[in-house]
Design goal:
Elements (H helix, E strand, L loop, with lengths): L1 H46 L3 H9 L7 E7 L5 E6 L15 E5 L2 E10 L2 E11 L1 H53 L13 H98 L5 H32 L4 E5 H11 L1 H6 L3 E3 L6 E5 H17 L7 E7 L5 E6 L32 H11 L4 E6 L3 E6 L6
Parallel strand pairs: 7-9
Antiparallel strand pairs: 1-2, 1-5, 3-4, 4-5, 6-8, 9-10, 10-12, 11-12
The structure holds adenosine-5'-diphosphate.
The site of adenosine-5'-diphosphate has 21 residues, from helix 8 and helix 9.
């Protein structure tokens, strides 16, 4: 309605403008013609200086109601004769003005020269009212208003019907859509009101709702199933967790007991070996005294047998010392600190330097070792035992020992040599205390406790020690100093 209204008003304003313009042109032309006629009739009175005849001539304008006033002016520019329409509101200026036409103060005025036989005899003045134009304007405005009203009425009628045919179904559809989204209820349906395209739209919309409803139901079902499964699995997991906790608890308890009994064993070994040393020293001393004081009273065989006694006691003392050392590892708490392994290895090599130089052993450290958290003194013992063995169990002319790290998580340290090697079947047993693979005096002797002590120190660091070896080619001992994942 608004758009048609605006269009109509604009069109009419334009029409009115054009009409007024044309009407003004017509008016000017009419007045000019009238002025020409009156001027012709006024020539004689002016020429003969007959004002009464001039008034008479102007008086004929009475029949033209549109003329409000008229005047004749002599050549001197003064008024000669006038005519003023009663109650017309017209005026005649006191003196003549230059010829021409102009609109002024609600009227159109014309000044025209009056001539007789080619010679000017005076000037004619005519004033015409614009009532006609106002009347036309009013009429036009009335017409426009009437048309506007009519158009509005027709628009309204059309709109009301369209509303029923188009807007109402669409509004219904929108209301359903809003209800669906507000309530999340996909069982709602829009009402079909006609069998046209809009009806089709409603059908399609309802179909879509039906599909969503179906999906929704399936989704809900799946969700229910999932929840059930999750519940079930959660219960199972909780059960598993409880069982694992119980198992862990038992394990911790058992470890505690094991630690305790290990400690008791270490204590026992320590005390026993400590206590054994004293009588052993006595036996040793007395056998030496015996040899010194009564040696000559024995025959050769007796003396030879007596001579083995100090040797055996020395060996026993060495064994007891190893046992003491071993038990001490278990009894003393570790002093864990950040330790630069390069420093430890340097100190060990320094303390073994005489033996290394004597045997002309090449020591290889390819890359610097890392800094790790461990017990400085105990880890020094590990390197000392492994490097000493690497030198001891080597019969090659050109001996070498390599110390290094494998960059694993946790890092793996190794001591490798090109010595005699170890048969695979002894890989495990060499870590047992007092286990030696050779004769008492072979390869510089030993008590067979070194590797056992190494293993104990490594395990106290939660690490692991193992060996790889090829008989006759060489041996590598590996170890870690922290728990492996
Ligand atoms: P010990 O050296 O006192 O005999 P260990 O516990 O250090 O005791 O070693 C146990 C045994 O393992 C040794 O007797 C030796 O036979 C073997 N063994 C240790 N290290 C090496 C090595 N680097 N190469 C060959 N055999 C070795």
């Amino acid at each position: 309605m608004l758009s048609t209204g605006v269009a109509l008003v604009l069109a009419n304003v334009a029409l009115l403008g054009i009409d007024l313009f044309l009407f003004r042109g017509d008016m000017e032309r009419d007045l000019r013609t009238l002025a020409a006629v009156v001027a012709e009739g006024s020539a004689a009175p002016l020429a003969f200086n007959d004002p009464a005849a001039g008034v008479e001539t102007l008086g004929t304008l009475r029949r033209r109601p549109v003329v409000l006033a008229a005047g004749l002016f002599g050549l001197d520019g003064r008024r000669f004769a006038i005519y003023v329409k009663p109650d017309g509101g017209g005026v005649v200026p006191p003196v003549a003005e230059p010829p021409g036409e102009r609109f002024a103060a609600g009227s159109l005025v014309i000044w025209l020269p009056v001539e007789q036989r080619g010679a000017r005899v005076g000037t004619l003045y005519l004033q015409s009212g614009l009532q006609e134009m106002a009347r036309r304007l009013r009429l036009q405005a009335l017409t426009v208003s009437a048309i506007l009203l009519l158009a509005a009425g027709v628009s309204y009628l059309l709109f009301a019907n369209l509303q029923r045919w188009i807007s109402a179904p669409i509004l219904g559809l929108a209301a359903t859509a809003r209800a669906v989204s507000a309530r999340q209820d996909y069982s709602l349906r829009a009402e079909k009101q006609s069998a046209d395209e809009l009806g089709q739209l409603v059908d399609d919309f309802n179909l879509m709702l039906a599909r969503i409803e179906e999906r929704d139901a399936e989704l809900q079902q799946a969700r229910d199933g999932l929840e059930l499964r999750v519940d079930e699995r959660t219960r199972e997991l909780a059960q598993e967790l409880a069982e694992r906790r119980r198992a862990e608890g038992e394990l911790a308890e058992r470890n505690l007991l094991l630690d305790q009994s290990n400690r008791e064993l270490d204590d026992f070994a320590y005390i026993a070996s400590h206590d054994l040393k004293e009588p052993l020293r006595g036996i040793h001393n007395f056998s030496v005294f015996l040899l010194e004081d009564y040696g000559d009273k024995l025959d050769a065989e007796g003396r030879s047998k007596l001579e083995t006694l100090p040797r055996l006691t020395r060996r026993m003392e060495a064994l007891i010392d190893s046992l003491l050392q071993f038990s001490r590892v278990g009894r003393v708490d570790l002093a864990i600190d950040r330790v630069d392994l390069n420093e430890i290895v340097a100190a060990v090599l320094e303390s073994l330097s005489i033996g290394l130089a004597e045997e002309r052993v090449e020591v290889r450290i390819l890359r610097p070792l890392p800094v790790v958290r461990c017990d400085r003194a105990r880890v020094g013992e590990i390197f000392r035992n492994l490097v000493a063995n690497a030198v001891k169990y080597n019969d090659k002319a050109e001996k070498w020992v390599e110390i290094g790290t494998l960059e694993r998580d946790p890092p793996v340290f190794y001591v490798a040599d090109n010595g005699i090697g170890i048969p695979v079947k002894y890989f495990a047993s060499i870590f047992r205390i007092f286990k030696r693979l050779h004769g008492r005096e072979q390869y510089g002797g030993g008590t067979g406790a070194g590797l056992t002590i190494v293993k104990k120190i490594v395990e106290r660091h939660n690490g692991r020690v193992w060996v790889e070896s090829i008989l006759g080619q060489g041996t590598t001992f590996y170890f870690t100093l922290e728990k492996e994942a």
